[in-house]
Amino acid sequence: MEESIFDYITAKAQALYWNTYLAEQTEAPFLGEELFPDKKQKNLTMNFIKGANGLAKVAPLSAFDAKVLRANRIGFKAQKTNMPYFKLALGIDEELRQELLEAEAAGEQYYMEVINRIFDDNMNLLKSMSVTRERMRMQLLTTGAIVMESNGQSYKYDYELGAEQKVTVTTSWSDPTADIIGDIIKWQDGIEAKTGVRPSRMVMRRNVFRYLLSNDYIKNTMYAFSPVADGKINITEESVKMFLSNQAKISSIAIYDKMYVDEEGTQQHFIPDDVVLLLPEGNIGNTVFGTTPEEADLRASKNADVALVDTGVAIATYMENDPVRKDTKTSQICLPSGENIDKIVIATIKTE
Questions:
Q1: Strand 252-255 to strand 201-204: parallel, antiparallel, or no bridges (unpaired)?
Q2: Positive or negative, the Cα torsion across 38, 263, 347, 80?
Q3: Among 76-90, 112-126, 329-343, where is mean pLDDT lowest?
Q4: pLDDT of 146
């Protein structure tokens, strides 16, 4: 049988193309991939246990041969919710098919270049899925909730953060006289008193980090230990990070300025302006994937070709007879969990 252009556009070929693309990436991965590692399950209901109080209670004394006392499950709250479903497709329609026939007639090299461009276009579907996951994770970390509305669908997931987790400074950090170190330690104290865990990692935008570089207390305290050139204090990014490590036991500061394009076509930062996050060590939760209809049903169908990437993202290719076309569809069911969400601080570092 004569080979068709459609024989190249398979789900497995696109999965391989995507995995090769990821392996060759030199750009830093999304922050949320580290904080919420992937986890796969079969259904679309996400269950997780949120720790409402991390402090352990002492065990009671007991006499020998006495019945054991039963402990109450205090301090934990079961969370159960249905995860959202996302899907997006691109197709090779009849008009594009005619252009490909012309490319085929022009020679194999040009023909394969056109096919590669189709693959590159289809990779944007997978990038959209990846960006969607990161937006959910960062929404959770910066607001305590996930809110989405598009295509006639509306979802809201409230992870019920405590009052001590959403704080606002009394003096904006843009003011050189602000007590930045005092603010951080106060927030740490609040979480440790509630959960027994002291958050030690920070996430912020670069514009916020510049406030640390120009803060009076930080500069004056570091003066004796900083190199001086032409009578001016030369405070570096690394020296400020070391200072926070010594003063507030901050183990790491992530400067996160990555952006995405929203449904309206507007560029947005994953971390809003003037927001600082304090996080505990380890994972905040998981990026939980359910099983999409494409994986569950189309995978066994003779009318579609299905492959999986990124733990739970399905790529499906299938033919349409009228009009004649071949579509590539990507889909995912996913939502970040928040087992350790009660140990974070969302700080607004600008006064109202």
A1: parallel
A2: negative
A3: 76-90
A4: 92
- Residue 155's φ and ψ, nearest 5 degrees, are -135, 145
Distances (CA, A) of 68 to 9, 56, 59: 64, 19, 11
pLDDT of residue 120 exceeding 60: yes
245-263 pLDDT, tens digit each: 999 999 999 999 999 998 8
Please report the DSSP string for 283-294 in residue order.
-S--EEE---HH
DSSP state for residue 165 in the 8-state scheme: G
Mean pLDDT of 96-118: 74
96 pLDDT higher than 90: no
Instruction: Say if residues 331 and 44 touch (Cβ distance below 8 Å).
Output: no
Other Cβ atoms closer than 10 A to 125:
21
The number of angstroms, rounded, from the C-alpha of 66 to the middle of its chain's C-alpha atoms is 51
For residues 300 and 10, the model is more confident at 10
Closest by alpha carbon to 120, among 20, 262, 3? 20
pLDDT at 76: 45
What is the C-alpha to C-alpha distance for residues 147 and 140, in angstroms, rounded to an integer? 9
Q: Cα–Cα distances in Å, from 140 out to 39, 79, 155, 284, 328?
A: 17, 15, 13, 10, 30
The residue count of the chain comes to 352
Give the residue from 318, 216, 207 showing the smallest Cα distance to 273: 207
